[in-house]
Design a protein that fits this description.
72% helix, mainly alpha, globular, two-stranded parallel sheet
């Protein structure tokens, strides 16, 4: 145990040295590929502070655990009188000296000698209290979380913004792309798990579209999405557009289901959502000096989440009536149509947020830095409303499926067979008439047709009780960390090298061994994403609490800390 603790301390110390090198490398213009900005420098001041405090805290706890039991605590050195003897020497010695009949001056002289002999072996209590004060005022778990998160983001910077590692041009291989995905599917089939069975009438049914199933859905889509970037397989571009639409559909489906059932529009819930969607990406933007739109999925989900939150939160008593919810659906649809489909309105709405939503593409000379946001937001502007509509009508759809499955065998097969035929024929015409179109032509139809493959997938995935009775645990696990894998892919798996650059290269650690490089980096990248998921969750739980006053105070402390870091970083850079 002692060895493990000291190895833990040593590892944190090495990371802190690396961080120090980055800071001084910034000051001396050595390690960084590009000159750091003020915000980048301030981020590393914060990381350095967190790692330093973590190192101090763990060192103190080791001192207290392994050395403390051998120390005898006493008061500080100095002159002692007869009345102070008990606190230093103990009752027996002082009693013997006083009872000997000697004067108080003689007693003081002799006790001073004993004082030098015995107190010299004691650790001053006041010094221990001073050393313990910084540790006692902070939560140990929170300090560890901040320290590990700082180390993770430092590693992100080292991989992508320093000359420690180089980039390697992507090798396009559609064959390798599908081979790796096939192997993953085969391996994942060994992780199948049963879903929950819910009561329905006198029988039990496996619920449609359970949480584990949607996480599985996100997981296998994310694998294809990531490998699409890694192997540069532009042939499946239209499929990737559908995957992103499916994520946005889930935003509408999941948020509507929660608000409609829970009716919880609290400030705490709002902060939890915004933290989950934006904390990691905003830190990544600060550390790497990237625009927010480099990670366009985050602002995309944030926008539609805000639409749903406001749409259902305003006049929330209307949510309980069919007429009221219908009116809200119409108003949300009309809002989207007016903003995106009537010329000039989009510019009026989003131009005030240009600093946040712009994308300054270094690869082109376009003057319209809001063009990327317009393109991305327009592609999936309606599918989240379809997700809300599905969530609202989901109980009726579920009851219909259960009713069909409770019919006689002949009637059951006939109805299911008819539905299967209709859906399959529709799928065929969708593929032939829309999916196989060239990129530009497909994008023009995508906002109005992306719901079709989503509905078809849900139908096939839940077609029989046996199909929906199990979920793929591996894909389900990966589905829970899709946000983290999306954000971190550009820095610890792929390689950009400069602010706002697209990942046209892959991170090259094991030079000359591309497959080993892919395998080992993939494992490390998934592990870092998993840790980032838990660290952001731990920080959220520590700061966003179910107490409005305390929550506001925590947010204020975070804001003040950021401003203080900026002032310190700005000052240090200019002094040096």
């Amino acid at each position: 145990m002692v060895v493990l603790n000291f190895l833990f301390l040593l590892s944190w110390f090495v990371l802190e040295l690396c961080l120090s090198k980055i800071i001084f490398g910034h000051l001396l213009g050595e390690m960084s590929i590009t000159p750091p900005t003020d915000i980048q420098f301030c981020s590393f001041i914060g990381f350095f502070t967190a790692l330093s405090f973590l190192f101090y805290q763990e060192l103190f706890f080791l001192f207290e655990l392994y050395i403390g039991p051998f120390l005898e605590f006493g008061t500080s050195f100095g002159e002692k009188t007869g009345s102070e003897l008990n606190s230093v020497l103990g009752t027996s010695e002082s009693a013997q000296l006083i009872s000997s009949g000697k004067s108080e001056d003689d007693v003081d002289e002799e006790t001073a000698k004993l004082d030098e002999q015995k107190v010299a072996t004691k650790f001053p209590q006041y010094l221990f209290d001073v050393l313990a004060a910084p540790v006692n005022v902070c939560d140990r778990k929170l300090v560890r979380t901040l320290g590990e998160f700082s180390a993770l983001m430092t590693l992100v910077y080292i991989c992508d913004r320093t000359n420690a590692f180089s980039g390697l041009d992507k090798t396009k291989s559609l064959d390798l792309f599908w081979f790796i995905f096939f192997i993953l599917v085969v391996v994942s089939l060994t992780t199948l798990k049963k879903n929950h069975v819910i009561p329905y009438g006198s029988t039990g049914h496996t619920g449609l579209l359970q949480r584990d199933q949607t996480e599985e859905w996100k997981g296998w889509m994310q694998i294809l999405f990531l490998m699409y970037h890694y192997f540069n397989t532009n042939e499946i571009y239209n499929g990737i557009r559908i995957f992103i639409a499916a994520y946005v559909w889930m935003t509408g489906f999941g948020n509507f289901s929660y608000y409609y059932v829970k009716n919880n529009f609290s400030f705490m819930r709002f902060c939890q959502m915004m933290w989950r969607l934006n904390f990691l990406v905003l830190v990544a933007c600060a550390v790497l000096s990237n625009d927010y739109m480099c990670y366009y999925i985050c602002p995309l989900h944030t926008l539609w989440t805000l639409f749903i939150y406001v749409g259902l939160g305003v006049k929330k008593n209307m949510n309980s009536t069919k007429l009221g919810i219908t009116i809200k659906f119409i108003l949300l649809f009309a809002s989207v149509y007016i903003i995106w489909d009537i010329e000039g309105v989009w510019d009026i709405v989003f131009t005030p947020f240009r600093y946040l939503l712009r994308y300054r593409n270094p690869h082109t000379y376009e003057t319209n830095d809001m063009g990327e946001w317009h393109f991305r937001s327009a592609l999936d502007r309606y599918v989240w409303i379809f997700g809300m509509f599905c969530a609202y009508n989901f109980p009726n759809f579920e009851r219909f499926i259960y009713w069909v499955e409770n019919q006689s065998v002949t009637k059951h097969i006939a109805i299911k067979g008819l539905l299967f035929t209709i859906v399959t024929v529709g799928f065929y015409f969708y593929v032939q008439g829309i999916y196989l179109l060239p990129k530009v032509e497909y994008n023009a139809l995508h906002p109005f047709t992306s719901f079709i493959p989503i509905f078809i997938y849900i139908f096939y995935r839940n077609f029989t009780p046996r199909l929906r009775a199990q979920h793929n645990a591996l894909f389900c696990w990966l589905g829970k960390i899709t946000l983290e894998t999306y954000i971190l892919q550009y820095s610890v798996w792929l390689h950009t090298g400069h602010p706002n650059y697209q990942p046209k290269q892959i991170l090259n650690v094991f030079k000359g061994y591309p497959l080993m490089n892919f395998a080992i980096l993939s494992l490390g990248y998934i592990f870092l994403s998993y840790r980032a998921f838990h660290l952001t969750g731990d920080l959220r739980d520590a700061l966003i609490v179910n107490d409005t006053n305390k929550l506001a105070w925590n947010l204020a402390k975070v804001l003040v800390s950021c401003l203080l870091l900026y002032v310190v970083g700005w000052s240090v850079r200019r002094v040096f």
